[in-house]
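Exam revision sheet. Question 4 asks you to relate a sequence to its structure. Input first:
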Amino acid sequence: MHIKKHALILLLALLLLVIMTNNASNAPSWIKPKTQITVTVNKQGEKYFCTLEILEISGNKIKLETIYNNKNKYLDEFTIDYFLNKYLYVSKLNLYFGQLKLGQVKSIGRGAALLLQGPKKVYYVEYTIWLKVVGKTTYNGRPVWKLALTSYKLEKKYPASSPNSQWVCIWTCSNSKATFIVKEHHTFGGKTHIFYYGYVEEKFDEFTLLVDIETGLLLYAKIVSSGKYYSGPGYKSLSELHLDSSWEYRPLEIKVTLKTPDFYGDIRFTLDKDLDYSKGSFITVPLSSKEIKIIHLDSKKEKVIKLNKDGIVNASELLIKSGKGFLEGKYKITIEEKSTSYVKYYWYYKTWDYFPPATIWYTVSKEKSSSGKYFYRIKVLRTYNARVYTYSSSIFEKSPLDITEGATIKLRTIDAWDKLIRYTIYKFLLDAGVDSRVTTTIRNIPLYYGTGQCHYTTVYWQQIKLEHDASTTYSFWSDKGLVGDLEGIFHEYGHAVRENVWPDPSLYFRWRKLGGKHGSTYAPCSSEFVAFDEGHSWFFASLVLKYIKSKMASLYDIPLPKVEMYSGNIYKGSKYRGELVEGRIAGYLLNLLSSDPTKAYSQFLAVVDASKVLPNHVVRTIIEWNTLAYKHYPDLRGKIVELCNQYNIKHFFSSSKTKGSVSGKYIVIIVRSKGEYIRDGKKTPLEQSQIYGAVIHEGDKLTLNHWSMVCFEKVKLFSIHQSQIEFSRNEIKVVKGRILVQTTGHPSWLIIRAGSSYRICDFKSKVLVEVDGSKVTISIYEGSVRVKTPNKEIVLSKGQQLLAQGSKYNIKNFKVSEANLAQTPSVKLTVSPSKTVFGEKVGVKVSTNVLDYRLVVLAYNKELEEGFILLNSTTYSKTTSISTDKLPAGNYTVVAVVEIPDTITGYESNTVALTISRSKPSVTITLEKTSVKKGEELVVSGNITRYYGELFINMTSPTGRILSKKIEVTGKSFTTTVKLDETGKWTIVAVVPETRNNYAASSNTVTVEVQEDYTPYYIAAALALATAAGATVFLLKRRKKLPPPPPPPPIPPPP
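Answer key, structure tokens:
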């Protein structure tokens, strides 16, 4: 072994950020010809300096001229990566640090290393110190990061050449003293022996590093330190190592200046074309040969530039000429492209945009450079759907952003955005411990954009609908972030996660009870079920946003919205019941569980999984979730009570003031129909079909109905019909009703008091306790119990029954097999046939063991996204049969439910699959007459099978003219009337159109002869004759009324 002094460092990647390999495309903007770096070193009063000038850049190569103290000149050629990370190194100190962030830890080598022989290779291990970015300041007018020593202890092991040995390297720093130890652990004879090979110690009296924020270059350093190297061939103690060398920097001062030439850099346009699910990264390509429109906003002058095949254009092309110069002021760039994919972009995305159209606003101003030349500075003000980066900053961090010397402008396709959302959900759920098959199913759920609503469709027809088209949904401003509602998208995915990760086993509940009014996150919902469903989705959305900010911010690469924690006063206080308010539920869960988002959801699911042991049930309300969480997470019990009180969520978790064998115990109450919990005289309703938890207080009373259940550890109390129990410090009293006590093992603490005079203990059994006033009945179905009566203590065994009236009692035997213990309702469903065609009858038969309850039969159609109620009525028989021929074609799941009064889910049957295929209708028609007069009504009758809906009666005239009449068919026969307006032979046929339920069909063809109807002519002629006769009479009458003619003239006299 030996210590090797090395002039260049090799940066280690021990849990720390390593400088990424640079190439020509992402090198700092100051890496360009004619850039000069001057380094001045003052070491223990002796000064020297060197100047480095970049002569040429070709691809990933850089040609460099270095001049020391204005005398010695050297020409070198390196890769850009080597130049930045290894060549820029002076007096055991890096000169280039790259982009830093506040709080970031950075490692730097100190020029000493050890070569360690392994079984297959040699390990190069270096003495390294770790620095932390502790703040911002300015140096010579430039913003800089301040770096300081940080305390640490790091250990790393390497395999040694001997199979029983390993190298152990330890780096430490404390109180400004850094050390580095190399030792070998060798095991033989059952013991581990330690041998030391190297030790480095450095004491820092002063340490100041200032790194330029924009360029990443060290601008100033002052270090006062002393150090020593020790080495040896493998000693048993550090003190045996011999001093190899030592050094002192008293002081070391380094100053760096950077001078860049004034010229325009390249603007590179890239496109996130797709996202690779397997790698979790974008497939990014150049925006090749794209035409881009530029507008000068004041003058309205325009120009179009074309990117080269690599998506690059020089920054000077962003200027519009004006005389001998360029136009100053505000400009705008617009970039857009349309897709030709109809199915994906129009059907799903509801847009033709290939990527959200991008706009970039920038200013141009004329300035004078340090060399005295004028140039035009280009600064981006704001962007829409474009991410603009220089090497040192981005438009999200700095505005205006100077892009004169070069920049990268990044766009993203709608495909890539859509996949990013899906990948986010997929990765979050995987990290939360959800099975990969389930997460893949959720990732692949269809997303329909631009539907005008945000909605997840549940049960069998999974899809998510989003309000806006995809282009609008994923549009963003550089200063405001997304236009669309990212939280709303993840909210809908929250519903999908519930349906796929922890679905409710009750189809009836999922279709009939999930969903309802919920106007806002701070107002009550229509039910506790809706509030929990919506509250979970807001809880899920906030967790995903937190996850993005902590794990995927660089992948999203846009300003992200604030994570809503629902902690404001609007979500707290007594105005509303917290279990009814979705925002309160979300806030409660977010503030109760881990601050790590995936761990928080894993904690949430652990409680959900605990509820799956209950028959046909999973948590449906926040009260139910709390009931199981209180039991599952003892460490969170105090916080559960505190937050329930803050968010006004109903609970019975407060600690009991007295502790006994009963008081202070935690119980789970499963309520079938409505019940009541009474504490300190206050009555609290227990809602139907829900689960509650309570810490018992002395004096608590509980009223239960219809097979509700109280669960202790190893003890279950079943209520048969209406019953009431009361808790004392050490006993449980059955006040009235019928309580079945079932125990596992031998719970010695359990004492049941029946009425006021009978105490039951020593349970190893199933016992029915009945109290009706002063009457007490104790029936042993399994095992035995001890009963303390008013007179003495007795033992009852299986098949024995104590019947008491007051203090008097007698014991008799009964047959357990014949005893009626009020069985819970059961439902059996059969469907016949299970495969048929539309329009044919389907028979449904339901068998139950109860009467006078409401029976509901439901059929869910997967393709139609709709459920059909086949029956909803009270049953008066244990067997109910119905039939239907009206169900549309499709694949169904049929279920029957017996609804008990005041319950939510009821008792469900088995589910049956039913397939109804498209039918081939059969239709025949007949005519009332085969010959009619023109315009006369003709009755057309017909019979049809396997069809309901629109039917067309098509009529063809003798000249080929076609008339059609549409009618609605609702049964097996139909009748309609038509009028034919042309003489001759007509043909008539009935046509069934093709629908999703049936294929097209046509009837037989019938004919009818239409004859001219002369009746109108006869009537017209008669009318004409009558008119003529009337006119004659009229004229005659007129003639009779004329005045008499004048008398003849007198006869003249004779001549």
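Marking note for examiners. Residues 706 and 721 are 4 Å apart (CA to CA).
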